[in-house]
Every structure is written in structure tokens, then in C-alpha cells.
Amino acid sequence: MPLFPSYPGLIGRGSPETCSNTQLSCHNTTVVQDLCCFNAPGGQLLQTQFWDTDPSTGPSNSWTVHGLWPDHCDGTFDSTCDTSREYTDISGILTSFGKTDLLSFMNTYWKDISGDDESFWEHEWAKHGTCVSTLDPTCYTDYQSKQEVPDFFQKAVDLFQSLPTYDWLSAAGITPSTTKTYSASDIQAALSAKHGGHQVTIGCSSGALDEVWYHYNVQGSVQTGTFVAADPDGTKSTCPDTGIKYLPKSGSSTGGGSTTTTSSSGGSQPTGGSGTPFSGNGFLEVTTGGSQKGCLISAGTWFTTGTCATFTATASGNGFTLKSSKGNCGISNNAFTCGSNVSSTVFTSSGGSLAAGGSTGFFADSVPSGSTQATVFTTSHDTSLTITWSSQ
């Protein structure tokens, strides 16, 4: 059963864009009936971030997204509020609504520590997204099935992009180190100064900083309302007062036993694994111009600065198939791709390199940089690649 009741007049009442209620959540003195324009009972929204170092996830100079959580205004919260909307295939849903740029960003900055991003996104939606009252399907005019999903993930990412924790800490002289330690007050001062003077929640594990939560109250709906910085709705920080470690990201980003090297474009890729055989779990590393430059990510595209995806190689006939968290991998329209609707290609290996149709030649238009992803082709393009296997 959904947590939020359907009040008279809500169905077909127009989207949150038409909300005239500008009352700030967590500040009402009487019960608000229109929960399409007022977030309740989860009136305080938290944009939460991870700093994962063992294993590392995401770029070495950025925190990653944990989620967007609707807390009650007293430090408590609901979870998994509508089991009928525990959707799967978040990637497919986002793609169906044209949110390919959003999905690309999530593939880099919304990472699961075990390498299963899709399951992580499904968990965050089911546990927290279904508890946002203004995202209830009855709050949409001419509702399209699952359209609240891209609204949830887009808002979480938009907030994350406005909260560059790594940069704010660095500007205050708080940088990752294996030897330095910091005080909670210094960390708070650096972040609260950028959050309207409001305190944030900092989380530690074994004395090392690994989470930050930014708290907001909202005027209007989560989709289109105004997020107003707020103090935490309860005492939640788990860091000691002093001696806090802020460790650098290092090691395999997905937990395998590989070491890392840094490419000229700044990304970390696993190295040192075996190039053969293609069996079990591993990474697909890309070499061009005689040096390793990045790896393939879960959609099958080439990335030089993000987190390598874990692929599963399974013996099939005279070769093997590959699968990522997106689904089966295959050659479609002369391009390497992975997804829920992709037919598996039986690959082979030659001299330790991945081969498709008996050829180890792969190509791209150019070497990607920054957040750019490059399509990997089996037909000739400007940049020649080889793809090898690094066992996890």
C-alpha cells in the first residue's frame, strides 16, 4: 500500500508546476492536506554523498552520490513506502524518457561499492523515492507510467552538482592524505560556510570520513520547488571531534585485487590482472597508442577518467559471452554495447586481446577526456584500440 493517501481532488489535479502553495516543509503548524505541493511526512530532504576508498568508487577528485532521502522533521523517516512501485531497470526507465545525459553522469558519479550500480539505484528509488509525497503518480496530469523516476534521479543529481564537497574541502586545506588528520569542527566550518551557514551531517567509518549529508526544507514539490538549506533534523554525525582521517582513493574501484595507474587524463584504471583467460569477473581495459587509457564501463562505452565496470565472462561454444550490470554485451550496428535488450555475441580472444568476429581490432572516433564517453566500433575509425582482460 502506498504511504500517502489520495486526498479528494488530487487525481488529475495538474502537475506540481502549477503549485501555488509556497509553504516551507517542516514549518507547518497545522496538517497540510495537499501533499502534491507540500512534502510530508518526509519534509526534510537530504542530499547524501559517499567518499569510498576501500574499494574506491568514482573519480579520485570527487565524492559520489548516495541518494536523496525524505526525513521526517524530527530525525525519523519512512522507507519503502509503495511496494507497487519498486521498479527495476532504472537505466531503461531513464533512457525511455530521454535522460541519457543523466544516465551517463550517474554511471560515473552514482556508484555502488560492489560494482552493481543498477541494483543500488533500484534500492535508493524503492527505499527513499517512493516516500516522497510530491512524486506520487496522482500528482501528475496525464501521468505516464514511471515518469516520477527520472524526476527523482534528476533532482538528486542536480543537488549533487551544486554541492562540490571535494572542492569545498580542498579550498579549506582539507585534502585526502594517508598521514594528515582533521577535526570535525574544521570540516564542518568548510562545508557549512557553503551551505548557507547551516550544519551538515558528517559520517565516519573507523575514524575515516566517508559520508556527508546536506539537509534542506522545500517550498513546493521536489520536482519544481525551491530547496532551502537547513540544519539537520537530528543529531546524526558519527565522526570523532579530532583525528579524522580523509583517505585518498586508491586500489580497484570495484573491489578486485588490482593496483591502479593514473592516465594522462587523470583517471584511475586497474592494472596487473591477467589478460587471459576471459573467465569469471574482470575489467575490460583499453590500450591505444601503446599505453593503457581507461576501460569500458557498463554500457559498453570507453571512459578514461571514471570507474571501470565489472564484466562477467561465461564460456559459450568456442568462445565466451560478456555481461555487465546493464545486461548482455554484443556487437550491434558495428558497435560494442551492453543492455537489457542486447543479444549476446560470442567473443573469442587472440594473443590476450578481445576479438569479435575473429578480429581484435576495435576503434573509436577519438580518445575521450573528462566526462566524455566514446563508442567502441568494430569498423575502422580514427583511433585504433585493443581491449584486454584484467581478472577481478
TrEMBL record:
Residues 276-390 form the RNase T2-like C-terminal domain. It holds the Pfam family RNaseT2L_C. Signal peptide: none annotated. InterPro entries: Ribonuclease_T2_eukaryotic, RNase_T2-like, RNase_T2-like_sf, RNase_T2_His_AS_1, RNase_T2_His_AS_2, RNaseT2L_C. GO terms for cellular component: extracellular region; vacuolar lumen. GO terms for biological process: RNA catabolic process. Residues 259-268 have a biased composition (Low complexity). Keywords: Cytoplasm, Disulfide bond, Endonuclease, Glycoprotein, Hydrolase, Lyase, Nuclease, Signal, Vacuole. It is found in: Cytoplasm; Vacuole lumen. SUPFAM superfamilies: Ribonuclease Rh-like. It comes from the Eukaryota. Rnase which modulates cell survival under stress conditions. Released from the vacuole to the cytoplasm during stress to promote tRNA and rRNA cleavage and to activate separately a downstream pathway that promotes cell death. Involved in cell size, vacuolar morphology and growth at high temperatures and high salt concentration. This is Ribonuclease T2-like. It comes from Rhizodiscina lignyota.
